[in-house]
Records
---
Amino acid sequence: MQGIFPNIRHMRVFLETARSGSVSIAAARCHLSQPAATQAIKQLETTFGTALLIRRRKQAALTTCGALFAQRAANAMRHINEGASAARRETGTKARASFETSVTAAQLRSLIAIANAGSFTVAAKALDLSQPTVHRTARSLEAIAGTPLFIARSSGVRLTPAAEVFVRGAKLAQSEIQQSYEEISRELGRESGSFVLGSLPLARTTIVPKAIHAMVSTFDGFQIRVVEGRYTELIRSLREGDIDCLIGALRDPAPADDIAQEPLFEDALAIVAHPTHPLAKKCNLRLEDTLCYPWIAPPKDTPAGQYLFETLRIEDQPETPVRAVSSSMAVLRGVLAQGPYISIVSRHQIKIDEKLGVICKLDVPLHGDLRAIGLTYRNDWKPTQTQSLFIDYLRQFSSVSTQN
């Protein structure tokens, strides 16, 4: 069910039934006949493979699975409504005030696919539909919204600002639906689940691999996908629901009001080189002693890069020693092995490399270099029980890593 929306009108009928305890009342509120409302709920139950309601003579009650779905479906509808409101603010009075109540699941699926692909054609392939079908669905969404959502360009299509904010609500809604499916599967004894973890370089060496191994060893049906990238890209994916959680260096202040940060431990920076470097075995070095050697520096927008360029102000030298810039440990490891290069990096990140004897810390004292490492997630994100267990493993191995 990954990436699939149930029928949105069916979800509205179900939620109204959950609130009122009556299919008849729900049908009236949704402007449907009672048989149509009953059929809508049955189709949802078929989708999830279990009963969501217990039908009684005077009142309908939620099953355990129904209660799980009701909470997630309500969150999904809230995200869609908030996305629509944000789109209206983006366009002033152009967007129709009721388009969130008219949007269909097919339109949201197409919107998300187009946003991800940047092309009607590629989106159609991802959805296993024809390009004309996706194009018609996208244009029908524009008609309902009452404002342009897609702008053609030579390389494909891009979203308008209104579509950008609306697609965020759609993706967050989709994430809630996926979580409801996983929670219901767990309740029915069909253990399954998924976790999309955004990982910054520091955590990739030991914390993430150990947490993955512990989780895979515990649950057969759980799948973890690790996404790497620049911090700004990962934060955007996190806020849009494409990523569940991010692990790595925290930012001060937090990047957005809807983001929460959980510190796990503090990590120090170190100036490093290959063990064969002329400075490798010297003591009481100063930063100035390193400046006659070529540097491979981390990007300025990373915590290590900020420290190097803003605190140590390495570029204020008459001639900057920085000859290469990269955040890749593989590149750093390879460059240091080629010659007398120097860099600055997290001590935790090079722990294994130090043990293997391929990178060594130079005896250059640093001050104010401690940085908080932890988890970053959305304020309103509620992990499933299985996802919470994976989070606990990340916390556990973060704690262990500071003790070793």
---
Amino acid sequence: MTQAVPFTTAETHALRDTLDEIVAARATPGGVLVCGTATGERTVISAGVVSPYTNPKAPDENTVYDLASLTKVTATWPLVGRAVADGLLDLDTPVRAYLPPMDGPMPSGEATMRQLLSHTGGLQAATRLDLYDLTSRPLHELICHELMENLPGTHRYVNRGYILLGLALAHVAGRPLDRLAADFWAELGMGRTGYGPVPQAPDVAPTEHPDGHDRLWGVAHDENAATMGGVAGHAGVFAPATDLATYAEHLLGGHGDPHETSPLTLWLRESLAPQAEIEPGLYRGLGWVLAAGGTVAYHHGFTGTSLYLAPATGRYVVIATNAVHNGAPRVRLAPLRERALKILTG
């Protein structure tokens, strides 16, 4: 078991103050943080409201948020790890081997599972599934037959790779991606995590319509995931902060024990090895972004979510917001995300 380092009062107050500041600046209607440890200590921090339109009350750890790209590390990444452990997938085999048979050249299908996980497969970066004719050929064929945009091994964040990973998982398992994920989350006790759509209830935080009109509520904000029926390897999952905390505790629980051999622990260890440099001091592992010499792993979601893990100290920070409700969230949320990273790196 990891020897977890509890959060200090000063650290939780700093996070609370930063959350209050970004809510006051209208960076997000509200949000929930969980500062926790592998041994189960949790401090929950909330501010603002769920939405001025659907529920002008404060969110809490049970408020459900659209995770956006956190789907990559809460659904696709762990399921790939499980499939590798079960001998269904090999990381250094091209993805085409795990998809239904295809004819003709398939440049993008030559990207390996490892490359897709680490965003180094060279696939085209602009997803735009609305431009595909999905009636002519299946999506996996359309993507695999495309020319690559970068040399394999070059890091570039690409949703296409995780779309292919999700399709490959469903093919080798013979079951839909959302059912595979639901079984996994149920095993971990993540009772309210799932692919949408979810009910338009007061405890579900709305996002916004891509064209700026009616709010999206309970359906995937990501247009490409929506095109796929809301179930995709790169986006589409909804969850409350408490489930993300439960997930983090499972990920970190055995990390400090060299004798721990659970598949999830071993997969996290393997995934924290750098695969490519993003920028000086920042690397991509399998799925996760690695910072501070690899002592912190994290991932963001476009809607305003983040999950930070500090395996050596057994600490984590969950950020759950619907910042996209008020506009593009990346710059607006930066102070909160930077504060969380700074605290975990010491």
